[in-house]
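User: Batch of two.

Assistant: Item 1 of 2:
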Amino acid sequence: MSGTVRQQKFARLIQKELSDIFQRDQRNALGNVFITIVDVRMSPDLSLAKVYISMMLAPDKKAVLAKLDHHKKEIRKALGDRIRNQARIIPELAFFIDEVEENAQRMDDLLKGLHIPPAEPE
């Protein structure tokens, strides 16, 4: 996580509140998908929040991302209702799929598939 302390604190607040929103309020809109907010990165002026999400039980992650983009105004409104006393402006939300877990799993699979002959005794 990079940025100023102010950006980091605001990003943690956004992450916590969005997690709560997805867990409670937006469950019906997204179906049976378990969404985890992995990271939130704020722009220097705190007007844009880049939200990185991980999805479990989602066969088509791009479709879920499209649903999130479709419901972005509702999610931002719910976020505004929660943080209106703590923030002067409610940031625009941009959702991205976090692929760190998938990349790590692919690397593990590649490493397990390597055939390394045993070292020859000297």
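Item 2 of 2:
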Amino acid sequence: MVAIEPAHLVGTGGAIGALCRYYLSQRVDRPAFPLGILTVNVLGSFVLGLVTIASLDSDLVLFVGVGACGSFTTFSSFSFAAVRLWEDDRHWRAIAHASVNLAGSLAAIGLAWGLFTLWPPS
């Protein structure tokens, strides 16, 4: 079996994750609220939670976890959107955006943990 360089795994996963983030954000984003950012952060947290909890092969963790999830989720866009909402005097939306991103991402990781550790029932 041919070993793939870690940088290639991360880079390929990153390219796929970035494209997926772009297309998904375009489909679900709304002018009044950055729903695209919320969606990719929560979904990415769920997938990263599954990959981490499952203790998958290190190559798969590099490809999916570091590469794809790393570029799929977005802290910088999340922060920028929160600041932009605040500057536009939409303070409650800025607070909601930050709160729902954090709570949703943590809940997604909890759901991933629950699904992995509790399923299938014994």
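The chain has five helices and no strands.
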